[in-house]
Amino acid sequence: MEVLEALPFVRIQDIEAVRAKVRTIEAKGIDALHVISDFDMTMTRFWHNGTRSPSTHAVLTRSHRVSDEFRTETDALYKKFYPMEISTTLSFEEKYKAMEEWWSTAHERIVALKLSRHDLKDIVATTQAPVVFRDGIHEVVKVCEGFGMPFLVFSAGIYGSHLNDICVAFEDPLIHTFNKNESGVHGAPYQAAVESRPNVILMGDSLGDLNMKDGVAHEISLTIGFLNHDTDVYLEKYLAAFDVVVLDDSPMTFCG
Prior knowledge:
Elements: H1 2-6, E1 10-11, H2 15-28, E2 33-38, E3 47-48, E4 51-52, H3 56-61, H4 68-85, H5 92-111, H6 117-126, H7 137-146, E5 151-154, E6 160-163, E7 166-170, H8 189-194, E8 199-204, E9 220-227, H9 231-241, E10 244-247
Parallel strand pairs: 2-5, 2-8, 8-9, 9-10
Antiparallel strand pairs: 1-10, 3-4, 6-7
Helix pairs in contact: 4-5
C-alpha cells in the first residue's frame, strides 16, 4: 500500500478508507477475491505514439474492409455522442439514452457490412491501427490466472450473431458504457465461479464502469479509475467516485 501511495501518477482521496479495504481483502485472501475490468482504454492504452489509440470499434472503422461512407457515418456518430458520454453536465439518464441510440445505430451500420468471421480475423491482422495493451496488463492477468482468480472483462465492443458465417445481428441485451454489470452473467459459468468470492477489484476508465459490479452482492469493492485525459476537468469527479485514480495513461505496474 505504501508503494501505491508513493507513485506519482496515483491519486487517492480517502487513504484511510482504501487502506481499510486493502487490509480486509488481504485478510479474506485470494479465494474470496475476483476482478472485473473494462477493456477499451483500461486494459488498452489511450495514447500510442502521440495519437489516440483505437477502440475495438475504431479498428473496424479504420480497416480496408469498410467503405468511406461507413467511416463518415461512424465518425459523425462519434462526434455527436462521445462528448455526451464524457459530459460533466448531462444527467446519467440523458447519457444512458444517448448511449443506447449511439450503440444501436452503430450496430445497424455494422450489420449492413455483412461481415464474416474471416473478415473480422483479417481486419484484426491487417489494420494499421492496432489496439495497444496497457503496460503491465499481461502480468496482471497472468497473476490472476496463476491464483485461479476469475477475471471478468466487460466490454461494449463488437459481439454479433452469425448466420451462415455472416453477421446478421447483435445479441441482446445491448451493452454500452452505462449498463455493463454482473447481472448480465447470471446463469453463466462465471456466476458460479464468483458466488464464493465476495470481494472484488474493479478497473475502468469511465464513471459508468462503476456499474460493472452491480447485480452481484459484494462485501468489499476496491475501485480503480484510469483518468487518461483532461485531468483538470475530471479529477475531482474521479476522486469522489473511485478509491484509486491512475493518471495520464500510466502502466499497471502499481498492481504489483
